[in-house]
Amino acid sequence: MKIDIIGDIHGCFAEFKTLTMKTGYSWETGIPIHPDGRKLAFVGDLTDRGPESLKTVEIVWELAARRQEAYYSPGNHCNKLYRFFLGNKVQITHGLETTAAEYEALPHKKKKEIRRKFMELYEKAPLYQVLDGGKLVIAHAGIKEEYIGKNNAKVKTFVLYGDITGKNNADGTPERRDWAKSYKGERVIVYGHTPVKEPRTVNSTFNIDTGAVFGNKLTALRYPEMELVSVGSSMPFNAEKFRDIL
User: Fold this and answer.
1) CA 76 – CA 79 distance, rounded (Å)
2) The whole model's pTM is what?
3) Do residues 15 and 216 touch, judged by C-beta distance below 8 A?
4) Which of 22, 26, 142, 203 has its C-alpha lying 20 to 30 A from 175's C-alpha?
C-alpha cells in the first residue's frame, strides 16, 4: 500500500494542488491522479479559514466518496460544517464563517450540490482509518492505542479534539495534553489538528498539521517510505497559532 497523507488543508486549495503535484500527481483530468497508482489520504479539516474550502470539498468528494480512490476521515471543523448543513444551531466562528460566506454566495442549485456532496463525503467516512493490515492509523487529532477498533462517544471526542483537559487556552480553544508522548504501540499513527511549525514525530506518531492556513506550510507524509514533503503557504504567518503542547 502506497499512500500520501495530507495534513489539515483548511481551504488552502492552491497549496493542496501544489503539494500533490510535487509528490507526482497529475491534474490533467481535473483531479489528482498518480501514474504509479498511489492514493491520497486526508487527516480531516478540509475547510474553514482558508480561501477555497468548497473547491477542496468537491475534489475530496470526487476522490473519496464518488470514486473511492482516496481515504478521508473528518476533523472537528468537518464535524461542525456537517452540523451546519444539517441545520443545527452552531456558532459561525473559528473559521466556519469563511466557509459559510463561500456557501451563501453560491446560486441555489450549486448550494444544494455542495451540501449534498459534503454530507455524502462525511456520512461515508469512518471516524478514523485503519489501513495496511492495521499497521497504519489516520485519525484527525490522534488516537490512544486502546481506542483503536472502538467507536464510542469518548473515542469520537478524542479523535476530533485530542486529549482535552476541560480547560481553555486564552484564545478559547481547548487545552490539550500531549498524548503522543505516552504512546507505546507499534502502529504508525498519523494525525493533525494541532498546528506545529515542523512535522512532529514522537513514538511512531506523526503530526503533519504544519499550519498551512496560518502561513506556514502544507505537509504530506508518504507511506510506507515515511518521507515528509511540504510546500510553503501563501497565507499571512500567524505565530500565535503555534503553541507548545502540554
Assistant:
1) 5
2) 0.96
3) no
4) 203
C-alpha cell at 139: 485519525
Cα–Cα nearest to 144, from 167, 132, 131, 128: 128
- Ordered strands of the 200-202 beta sheet: 129-131, 136-138, 188-191, 205-207, 200-202
Candidates 202, 201, 167; CA nearest to 183 is 202
First to last CA, the chain: 34
Q: What is the pLDDT at residue 170?
A: 77
Mean pLDDT by 10 residues, the chain (246 residues): 98 98 98 98 98 98 98 98 97 96 98 98 98 98 97 97 87 84 96 96 97 98 98 96 74
pLDDT of residue 187: 97
Outline where the chain has alpha helix (H): 13-22, 53-60, 76-86, 96-104, 108-124, 153-161
